[in-house]
Design brief:
The protein is α+β, with helices and mostly antiparallel strands. It is 33% helix and 29% strand.
């Protein structure tokens, strides 16, 4: 069981954002635990490390003059959230988070599932529909940071869940 998430092909079109024109997906094998998608999403996205919070502040400062919503603006929406991501839909095995902005629509989908080989997997899929040129530029600039953040957050989740699921030492 690898502690690092694997990059896998994102399933598009995806029902969470049928018009998505950019997507990525990371998959992590976890111990066979009864964990819901919302619990996995809270563990991964409920609190960002300091370096991610600093990157998000920088993002907000740079994109604000272009009229894009800040991560803090989502706090005032009155919607149920995980981190700053509004919950779009949820079931035991999948949660969809995201929002629409003038430059792009964004969804993050967390799936918890068993595969045909008896493994327990957590998938983190990001879907984006770029609406205007600014959305295309934005994704091109943030994609390397996005990939690093998602892979790190999923790997950290995997480490924490392995500690929880490990039998106590004698």
């Amino acid at each position: 069981m690898s502690a690092r998430p694997a990059t896998v092909k994102a399933h598009v079109p995806h029902p969470a954002l049928p018009g998505a024109d950019w997507a990525d997906c990371y998959e992590l094998q976890i111990p066979k635990l009864d964990i819901s998608a919302i619990a996995a999403a809270r563990a991964m996205l409920g609190r960002f490390p300091l370096w991610v919070r600093l990157l998000l502040r920088l993002r907000d400062a740079v994109t604000g003059p272009f009229g894009l919503r800040s991560t803090r603006s989502h706090q005032a929406d009155g919607l149920q959230k995980i981190g700053f991501f509004p919950i779009v839909s949820q079931s035991d095995n999948q949660i969809v988070l995201g929002f629409d902005d003038r430059h792009l629509d964004f969804r993050v989908v967390i799936d918890v599932r068993d595969d045909d080989e008896g493994r327990r997997l957590v998938d983190a899929t990001t879907l984006v529909r770029r609406k205007i040129l600014l959305g295309r530029i934005y994704i091109a600039v943030i994609a390397p940071f996005h990939r690093l953040i998602v892979a790190t957050m999923l790997a950290d989740f995997g480490k924490r869940i392995r500690v929880i699921s490990s039998p106590p030492s004698p």
